[in-house]
Amino acid sequence: MAGAELVVPAWRSLDDDVRSASFWRMARDLPRLTGHALALVRTTSRRWALAVLGLQLLSGALVVLMMAAAREFFSALVASGLVVGNLVHVAPTLVGVGLVMGASKLVGALTSACRSRLGPRIEQRAELRLLGLTTRAPLELFDEPRWFDAMSRARDRGVSSAPVVVDQALALSGALVTVTAAVGAVAFVSPALAVLVLVSSLPGAWAAVRSAQLAYVSRRRTTTLRRRKWVLSDLLANRRAAPEIRANQLQDHLLGLVEEITTRDMGERLEVSRRQALQRFVGQVAGGAALCVLYLALVLLVRHDALSLASASAALVVIRSGRRSLNRAALTVRTLYEHGLYLADFFRFCSETENRAREEEDEAEPVPLPHDCATLALKGVSFTYPGSEAPSLRDVDLELRRGEIVALVGDNGSGKTTLAKLVAGLYRPGSGALHWDDVDLGTLPLSALSERVTLVAQDHTRWPLTARDNIAIGRPSREATDELVVRAARQARVDPVLSSLRHGYATLLSRQFTDGADLSGGQWQRLALARAFYRDAHLLVLDEPTASLDPRTERHVFEELRALAARGRSVLLVTHSMRMAASAHRIVVLDGGRLIEEGPHDALMEKGGKYAAMVGAAAGSSDGSTAVAPRP
Ligand SMILES: Nc1ncnc2c1ncn2[C@@H]1O[C@H](COP(=O)(O)OP(=O)(O)OP(=O)(O)O)[C@@H](O)[C@H]1O
């Protein structure tokens, strides 16, 4: 593991963009990147953004006012000849300076307060937009590495960059207003001095940008390293991995790996700090020299009567704040550019995903699907996962009739889960068609079929919700009465377990939260079944729903399924349990993605083909699946 590299994420392709970005390139791209931030502001926090901009203009006006107030003050001071008795005449001008300074601080504080109102709103907006897309995107996109990578990038960096970009865009506009006001005020008394102010700030700005650039490039270089550390440290503190780590005494080995990685990361960070310190030093020396030149120019201007002493002193006050703002602007541009790239990436991902989802919906006409269905038929269905070469299903013809339990059996990888997912409306077939009676489902959105189906997936989710909600989310649109929830729990034989929890059905099923509880593997499986029973859909697609159940519960669940079938529901049951399969009305055998046998247990046993061989193998096994339950 130590030597293995994780896949380098695609977003590292931005490295070169950022590393090689000159100021001119940034200046060219910035309007486009900040445009994205404005789009977010428009739809979330327009009022606060306008308040910030208004306050920033006010702050610019205060800089000019400061110059005037400081000049008045220094003029009065010079006029007083620094005689103590005359100083009283200086007091009003000093009060003026104090008032402008106070107002300036107040406006600064208000600006920060308004800016801080924006970030959380924007982040929430971006996050909800992303999650809205990830939960609605067609499932096949999750099988496309390129899309998945873009999604991780948008989630990991895009969402958190959104508030940063908005904040930095506002910070930049504020800094530019201050710089313009300061340089304008200085230019009013001496244009040459204004040019000098700008030039003398360059070394500091250069050092700030280079330092940020260094940190960024180093962070990118160590991304893979840090991801490996996260993966490992997550496992070292993970509840599920904890028993295995202890039982197999993996502690020292795993800690050794983490130490190796963190040492490399630390070395890189120390090197960056060293180079940053050097750059800061060079910048400060050059900046100090430039400042000396500036002061010298001021002295010369005063000496040659090109500038009054009062104006020169006032200019000094304003120059300080102008230079500070210029340095801030340089840093802000850097951060804005970097995060702007992530945000642009986020928007690109969102619009591509929206287009893909729209294409999927557009292909389909909104023809209403009859509620009930006598036969769901698959006709010549083939399917290949995105990015795979070999098809997982080949030319499958199959009918699922109302009131029938069909067991789907076959070796590992024969295509059972894939077929179940197609029947559940999660994928469209690559070729062939699905018919809901005489409605071709290819003409409908996939969601039309999902509405009529319930799926218990092989790796069903253990929702960190209360026991009650774990069942009720089976159909969120229905009002979850106690009666309905408990009935579903009883059908899945999980009611006694849930009732005996500390807070009964209100117990949170996650040990990651205080007072939370956990269930055994089989109990979680019963809960997943309860959710399916609660959903009460026309067609139940169950992918190995009893793999973790004890034989008595398995038998009970099968009786429930039979009762559902008697009420006109259809059941597609993916199973490795020959006992369950034998009890189904019909058995379908898949092999290498092809349907090779189909019929009731007795007929298939008589045929002596693949199914009979599987039953024979199970009979010879010690997994307890030798006994074949009574057939319907
Ligand atoms: N998301 C995926 N992307 C690419 N190939 C996949 C994907 N899921 C499954 N496959 C491939 O499709 C084939 C059928 O897989 P499927 O999961 O349908 O088999 P299965 O019969 O349910 O197996 P098992 O009994 O082990 O659950 C396998 O070759 C598998 O490698």
UniProtKB/TrEMBL annotation:
Its main location: membrane. It comes from Streptoalloteichus tenebrarius (strain ATCC 17920 / DSM 40477 / JCM 4838 / CBS 697.72 / NBRC 16177 / NCIMB 11028 / NRRL B-12390 / A12253. 1 / ISP 5477). The keyword Repeat does not apply. This is ATP-binding cassette, subfamily B. It is a multi-pass membrane protein. It is found in: Cell membrane. Keywords: ATP-binding, Membrane, Nucleotide-binding, Transmembrane, Transmembrane helix. The lineage of its organism: Bacteria, Bacillati, Actinomycetota, Actinomycetes, Pseudonocardiales. Pfam families: ABC_tran. Residues 376-617 form the ABC transporter domain. The chain crosses the membrane at residues 48-70, 76-100, 169-189, 195-217, 281-302. The keyword Disulfide bond does not apply. InterPro entries: AAA+_ATPase, ABC1_TM_dom, ABC1_TM_sf, ABC_transporter-like_ATP-bd, ABC_transporter-like_CS, P-loop_NTPase, Type_1_exporter.
